[in-house]
Structure to design on (333 residues):
């Protein structure tokens, strides 16, 4: 535990990639003359998480060594556990126009500058490797794999300075950074905190397992994903009204906190469960709920594969304790 009694971030230090006010003003002007790369939604979500330290120890989009280490061994080049690639990719024609050492402006869909990336490495994006190893399937019908196949053929990496993590972010009052959730936990005196990840409204079984988790933890972080999801998932604004109603009527406000997680859903099952746990450690959580078919989609993964994958690691390497729940349902007998 840290000096405030909170769990240390993954890698030991909480990353902050947002430049100083003076540096951001300077780069905002300079970026107007730089090559501009419009980030797809997944990369925009990843950039925001990189910026605020949610993906600590990552300090930029992955280079070739980290990409292959993660795909093949679930480890960064440093040896730290990391389960999913985090890349910035472009088409080959765009990559060919960028010189090594050249800064480029990363923008949103409205061409508003988000960050400046100084390109120190360009490498081929092995999409087949990423699909087969990180997602466990090369099937283009898998929604996460479909996103990978639509990405560029060349990945870029290098020093990253963020100007604005997200322009006009929705759910702003709930969009707490890891530093902010940690401050809330410290203020409330929570030494053990369990995180609940969801991309759905909380139903009765969810309420049951979260309240069971509160029996062994001081506090509960309800942390719904509000970034990119597949067509057919319940919209985030609808879900947020459900969460607010539940917190106002069914959970104790003294030991419950609602904050949003502005991530893109990858639907990668077991591998994504590890990612979700590591990220929640960065937010200051000591425990993480892993239920039935966590982060799964369709029939690509076994019911409890996302729980079993934690057994492949020394618990100290993950640093956050998984709370494993079996299928929970209402019994009328």
């Amino acid at each position: 535990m840290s000096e405030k009694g909170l769990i240390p971030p993954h890698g030991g230090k909480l990353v902050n990639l947002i430049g100083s006010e003076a540096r951001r003003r300077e780069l905002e002007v300079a970026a107007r003359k730089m090559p501009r790369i419009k980030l797809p939604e997944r990369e925009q979500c990843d950039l925001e998480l990189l910026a605020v330290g949610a993906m600590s120890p990552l300090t930029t989009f992955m280079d070739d060594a980290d990409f292959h280490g993660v795909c093949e061994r679930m480890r960064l080049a440093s040896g730290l556990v990391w389960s999913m690639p985090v890349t910035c990719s472009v088409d080959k024609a765009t990559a060919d126009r960028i010189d090594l050492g050249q800064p480029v402006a990363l923008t949103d869909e409205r061409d508003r500058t988000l960050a400046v990336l100084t390109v120190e490495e360009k490498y081929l994006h092995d999409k087949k490797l990423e699909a087969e190893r990180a997602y466990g399937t090369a099937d283009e019908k898998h929604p996460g794999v479909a996103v990978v196949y639509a990405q560029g053929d060349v990945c870029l990496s290098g020093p990253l300075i963020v100007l604005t993590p997200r322009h006009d972010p929705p759910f702003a009052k709930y969009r707490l950074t890891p530093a902010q959730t940690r401050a809330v936990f410290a203020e409330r005196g929570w030494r053990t905190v369990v995180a609940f990840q969801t991309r759905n409204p909380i139903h009765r079984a969810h309420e049951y397992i979260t309240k069971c988790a509160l029996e062994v933890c001081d506090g509960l972080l309800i942390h719904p994903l509000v970034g990119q999801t597949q067509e057919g998932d319940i919209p985030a604004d609808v879900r947020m009204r459900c969460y607010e109603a539940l917190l106002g009527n069914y959970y104790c406000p003294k030991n419950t906190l609602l904050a949003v997680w502005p991530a893109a859903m990858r639907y990668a099952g077991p591998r994504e469960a590890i990612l979700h746990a590591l990220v929640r450690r960065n937010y200051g959580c000591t425990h993480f709920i892993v239920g039935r078919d966590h982060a799964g989609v369709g029939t690509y993964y076994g019911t409890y594969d996302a729980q079993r994958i934690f057994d492949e690691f020394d618990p100290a390497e993950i640093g956050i304790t998984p709370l494993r729940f079996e299928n929970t349902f209402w019994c009328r007998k």
Summary: Residues 172-324 form a domain with the Rossmann fold fold (CATH 3.40.50.620). The chain has a mean pLDDT of 96. The two ends are 45 Å apart (CA to CA). DSSP finds twelve helices and twelve strands in the chain.
